[in-house]
Design a protein that fits this description.
- The structure is a homodimer of 408-residue chains.
- Chain A has helices spanning 12-19, 22-28, 39-47, 58-64, 85-97, 111-122, 133-138, 140-148, 162-170, 178-190, 204-210, 212-223, 246-252, 256-260, 277-280, 323-330, 341-355, 361-379, 398-406, and strands at 54-56, 69-74, 102-107, 126-132, 152-156, 195-197, 236-241, 265-272, 282-286, 297-301, 334-339, 385-390.
- With 408 residues, chain A is an alpha/beta fold.
- In chain A, the strands form 3 sheets. In chain A, strands 1-2-12-7-8-11 form a 6-stranded mixed sheet, sandwiched between helices. In chain A, strands 5-4-3-6 form a 4-stranded parallel sheet, with helices on both faces. A two-stranded antiparallel ribbon of chain A has the order 9-10.
- In chain A, helix 5 (85-97) runs parallel beside helix 6, helix 5 (85-97) packs across helix 11 (204-210) and helix 6 (111-122) runs parallel beside helix 8.
- Chains A and B meet through helix 6, helix 8, helix 17 and helix 19 of A and helix 6, helix 8, helix 16 and helix 18 of B.
Chain lengths: 408, 408
Amino acid sequence: MPEVRDSGSPTAAEISARIRPRALVEQNGSDQKRIAIPEPVTELLRQCGRPTPLHRARRLEKHLGTGARIYLKREDVLPTGSFKLNTAIAQAYYAAEEGRTTLVTETGAGQWGMSVALAARMFGLRAEIFMVRCSLEQKPYRRHYMELLGAEVQPSPSPRTAIGRKILQDVPDHPGSLGTAISDAIEYALGRPSAAYLAGSGMPHVYLHQTLLGLEVATQLREIHGEALGVEGRGDHLIACSGGGSNLCGLIGPHLRAKADGADLRFLAAESTAAPRLTKGVYEYGRTDLGGFTPEVLGYTLGEDFIPPPNHVGGLRNHHSSPLVSLLRHKGVLDAVAFDQRTALEAGRLLLRTEGLLLAPEAGHAVAAALDVVAKADAHALEPVIVVLASGSGLLDLQGYNEVLLDT
Amino acid sequence: MPEVRDSGSPTAAEISARIRPRALVEQNGSDQKRIAIPEPVTELLRQCGRPTPLHRARRLEKHLGTGARIYLKREDVLPTGSFKLNTAIAQAYYAAEEGRTTLVTETGAGQWGMSVALAARMFGLRAEIFMVRCSLEQKPYRRHYMELLGAEVQPSPSPRTAIGRKILQDVPDHPGSLGTAISDAIEYALGRPSAAYLAGSGMPHVYLHQTLLGLEVATQLREIHGEALGVEGRGDHLIACSGGGSNLCGLIGPHLRAKADGADLRFLAAESTAAPRLTKGVYEYGRTDLGGFTPEVLGYTLGEDFIPPPNHVGGLRNHHSSPLVSLLRHKGVLDAVAFDQRTALEAGRLLLRTEGLLLAPEAGHAVAAALDVVAKADAHALEPVIVVLASGSGLLDLQGYNEVLLDT
């Protein structure tokens, strides 16, 4: 057991308060209806290309011969190649405002680490990033990117932390997981008062920052495409892949009220069969890390001991679904479906061959889910609006596409 | 000598007419002031994200402490990650219109091949791509991308052509060059009437298609940024890297008349010290391929036997500069400067650390040139407008950045 779980050690709430900028802790418990985006954050988001395009996938529609209208929210065009940059910039701002000088975090497939590395540089901060070992080995380019920005990148489990050393003692060739990396990062940040721990997903403040996704989608559907959402009897869908849940919650968050008020709107989470929490997990209390730094939370879980098989979908390999995503699922507000990596990559290839857009394997799960929704809609002669969150670019995932689809 | 150079073999003009769609041959010799873009081409260009952003690099300006206003024309956001897609779509359209079913081409660093692979897929055509061997080995991801789209990718020199077999007989470990790859592709296309050969650069029709770069820049400077270009005494600059010359000519083409009419406007070509044609070459007649398929053209050349050293700047490794670029240089309309790859990649890293944009090493040469222009302008207390063509994304060049800047 690591020291901090001993009697007299800080509670999870105390840990959170110590490692996080105060503004983020306040956002986690806020009951305000709206929280303003600070002007320097808005300015950087604009510089990075926000609002990102909402792309009508007409060629995919034509290929499928469907009456559905499919839209892609193109987060892949952001400089780091994923939606993660939205919250990284916000969190780095609050950390810098509070005088913290180092950003510490974990990363799975590397998108979050790239975003933190860039956000740190934009505010003149240092970055220490613990990256899931098997992803680090599969995706050296993402490590190079972070290092070019001046970030320090460590494999997780890490010999630099007590929890990392303990895990490596038990399982020397442990491939790492988001659980091990979260534990490494939190322990590392706890010991350094000048450090701020940044969460890539799972937390209310992250979901808050990502709600600009759903807000932009609503505006763009209305103003650019002249499209209403949630029309009765049409079966409109908002679809995102779900790992920590932030691209999903960011997309659907601003539309929860409309659905509660009766809009005909479905929310669909696409997960990986490598970590099928929402589709096969148990709804119970558990921890999201392995070190015991985070509070036990109620959610769909595969258990703390679950080690997902190494695959090319690092962003969807969590063992425990976040409380908010789990609650939405438990209450029936959110549907969920799981895909294996080949199906997701094949959906990604279809999108490349029709629309010319190469998305990350994680986003391929959302595309696969959309294809299923289209097939069902066509079978019932419905013509829904389907919004798919294109959460990230696949240019740095070509090795994965190659291994699964070409090298066979 | 390959067979087609024997007595009685077709002339270079006959070869060009045979392998190219007729519309492109006509464009090469057109004396029209304007040539309309076909509607299907416009539609696809829009779908791919045109007009691309003209980004004011305020954070770079601040870092440099300069009064110059630096703009980046962001071709890196196109789906294939480079400006090459602009002409690939146009050429594929004309080939399809003429009933040709296969697109054949060469590619250096791979950006052109990616663009042809995507354009072929968009028009339902096959693609056969000869890729410079050393680039293919350095950049497997670009090969994966082309193959995902269904393109056939061959290393050049290729055992599938007579010229390729001859080169391999003489130099079995020949790293390949744009010269070998052009020869492979043209020979391959010549033998197949259903095939169209697509040129990635160097030809008037390619420059024509790329003039949308300079046209968009002019409109965006005026309408979005309220900026005039060529103001007397300010020393405004248009800067692009120069390999085959198409991003350069596309950028400056629409501004040639203004300069001839007296606008204070400088055009600057940034080349690689690995192939310093404009800065160290001789102005004389020569061939751009090794097979003798292309006509002898007047240009700055390093000689047909020049084999550039393998480096990470595949797009700038030609041995012979195009007639138009060379003429502009010879007449003093165009300035030129050469950079080694480390300097170019360091400029690229600076842009990443300030603006958050990771450009291809080729574009890094243009950024390096801009840094020099800024330094000189600052020394003379000038505050020019500087437009840099961000010709491509560097996400697939991270291995090169890593080897040159990090692994040392």
